[in-house]
Amino acid sequence: MLELRNVSAGYETGLVLRNVSLTVPKASVVALLGANGAGKTTLLRVASGQLSPVSGQVRLGGEDMTGKRSEKLARRGVCHVPEGRGIFPSLTVADNIRLQAPPGVDRRKALKQAIQAFPRLGERLEQRAGTMSGGEQQMLALARAYVCEPQVVLLDEVSMGLAPKIVDEIFVYLRQLASTGISLLVVEQYVARALELADYVYILDRGRLTYVGEPSEISEEAIAHSYLGGLAS
Ligand SMILES: Nc1ncnc2c1ncn2[C@@H]1O[C@H](COP(=O)(O)OP(=O)(O)OP(=O)(O)O)[C@@H](O)[C@H]1O
Questions:
Q1: Residue-wise pLDDT tens digits, 163-189
Q2: Among 5-14, 89-98, 102-111, 208-217, which is the least confidently predicted range?
Q3: Distance of CA 224 to the CA centre of its chain
């Protein structure tokens, strides 16, 4: 349903992704792994329309969406939970949730959905988001995935910097989300957990895909090589 076809993309400093093709099928979880700087965040930015590729295509449900703005992709069901959470720390939890709801989605309903998914947020609606714990802030960021009524959610290192117990909780939410038939594209530093969740794995090494397959087929050597390869460069 979400497809990147032969995508090359980067910044004024140079190309980052080179001829990358990746598919997130309906109702599946895809894990995107790779060393720091491999281009994972850049790939998610292309997939959500924040960055236009230099060449190649972004397709959604078979339709060419290349160069379309992120708002348009969001309206079509692409929900991006960015690295660094993307929440507004000085606003209340309730206002953050209302802002997460894209145009056309009822804000009261959004609030209800978020609280249903994360009861802890319901207890803190009037608290400023920036004063919550890291785990609670991450839950607020993840609430976006419930509020936006997405078809596919792009998750950029959502367990970053959190205590193992909270990471466990976050993975329970991701599993729940996936079980509702929503597709996930997950960039994750916890490789073992990502592999447990995923139906398909892609490994990116310095902007090129070096592995595509199912988690059961991947060797630890292949993973280690891609990470060490990236670090050694
Ligand atoms: N806005 C930008 N302008 C210029 N270069 C950028 C920009 N964002 C990222 N880069 C560069 O693009 C390359 C890939 O970065 P990206 O953030 O996509 O990697 P990543 O795999 O997500 O890394 P990490 O795991 O460290 O988050 C890096 O060399 C980075 O410095």
A1: 999 999 899 999 999 999 999 999 998
A2: 102-111
A3: 23
Mean pLDDT over 1-7 rounds to 96
CA of 43 to the centre of ligand 1 (A): 10
Determine whether the shortest distance from the Cβ of 14 to ligand 1 is under 6 A.
no
Q: What is the pLDDT of residue 104?
A: 77
* C-alpha closest to that of 49 among 62, 36, 59: 59
Per-residue confidence band for 228, with pLDDT thresholds at 50, 70 and 90: low
For residue 119, what pLDDT is reported? Answer: 92
Q: In what order do the strands lie in the sheet with 2-11?
A: 14-24, 2-11, 55-60, 63-64
| Whether the CB of 82 sits within 6 Å of ligand 1 | no
Q: Write down the domain spans for the chain.
A: 2-77+150-232, 87-148
Q: Which two tokens stand for residue 154?
A: 């792009």
Spatial neighbors of 103 by CB under 8 A, at least 6 apart, are: 75
Q: Is the CB of 36 under 6 A from ligand 1?
A: yes
Nearest residue (by CA) to ligand 1, atom 4, is 11
Calpha distance 64→46 (Å, rounded): 13
Query: Which CATH architecture best describes the domain 2-77+150-232?
Result: 3-Layer(aba) Sandwich (3.40)
Q: Which residue owns the Cα nearest ligand 1 atom 24?
A: 36
Q: With a 6 A CB cut-off, is 13 part of the ligand 1 pocket?
A: yes
Binding site membership of 180 for ligand 1 (Cβ less than 6 Å)? no
